[in-house]
Design goal:
Length: about 250
């Protein structure tokens, strides 16, 4: 129990640090009208604004670290929209030449990032055929981030279902019974690798200090880990055309 409490406190501290390291992220937990009112500082120097945005995004991307997560995309989109709205209120005509350049660069950067979210969403959509298990993995990892209570028996069932889905996908991939563009398959393989790492981190967090978790989840997790380890290279070889040992590039 002592180890469990220490781990829980550590995770809580990490979550709290995320919300306290950047001023704008603190505002995210406040009512929407308060958030907008505090952001509306038209006199904020452009150089300071750029540094703040950089710090905010470092923290956002550090916390929302699952690339295919809808929650991540929604949070980043909200942030970009808010920053663009506030940036347009800045007194552009009164800026000196350097400040105007900074303004235009920051606006372009935020707009490009918004466009990239749309491109990423399109890529994820096209790869869904090979990733039917991804939503469950993402949910488990995000539930841990949000410190939601974990039911070991139900979690074991979730992992068991993930293993079945991965097995079905792998069978179709090996038998070339699924049609996916090479670029989409390549993206799917990279996503499988990323999800495997995230799931390993998730498992390592609970393993050891929660005996019920270890009892229920250790065996199905080991099977899922092996299936994911085999699925990514199978996709690369069968659908992308990358030979084993060759560099991942298209």
């Amino acid at each position: 129990m002592r180890h469990q409490n220490e781990r829980v406190r550590k995770d809580l501290n990490n979550s709290e640090q995320f919300y306290t390291t950047a001023v704008s992220l603190q505002r995210a937990n406040q009512p929407q009208n308060c958030y907008n009112e505090q952001l509306a500082d038209v006199n904020e120097p452009m150089r300071q604004r750029i540094e703040r945005v950089r710090e905010d995004l470092d923290n956002l991307n550090g916390f929302y670290n699952i690339d295919i997560s809808l929650r991540r995309k929604a949070r980043l989109r909200k942030y970009y929209d808010e920053q663009l709205t506030e940036l347009r209120k800045a007194p552009f005509d009164s800026f000196n030449q350097e400040e105007k350049i900074d303004y235009l660069l920051l606006r372009s950067y935020l707009e490009r990032n918004l466009q990239q979210l749309d491109l990423d969403a399109t890529k994820d959509k096209k790869a869904e055929t090979l990733l039917p298990f991804a939503p469950t993995v993402v949910r488990l990892c995000e539930d841990r981030q949000k410190m939601k209570p974990m039911d070991a028996k139900k979690t074991a069932q979730d992992i068991f279902e993930v293993e079945k889905l991965i097995s079905d996908v792998k069978e179709k991939v090996v038998g070339k019974k699924v049609k996916v563009d090479r670029s989409d398959a390549f993206h799917a393989a990279k996503t499988v690798d990323r999800l495997r790492c995230l799931l390993a981190e998730w498992f390592g967090f609970f393993k050891g200090y929660d005996p019920m978790f270890t009892w229920w989840v250790a065996e199905p997790y080991a099977k899922v880990n092996k299936q994911m380890e085999e699925l990514a290279p199978a996709i690369r070889v069968k659908l992308v055309g990358i030979k084993p040992g060759h560099e991942d590039a298209i």
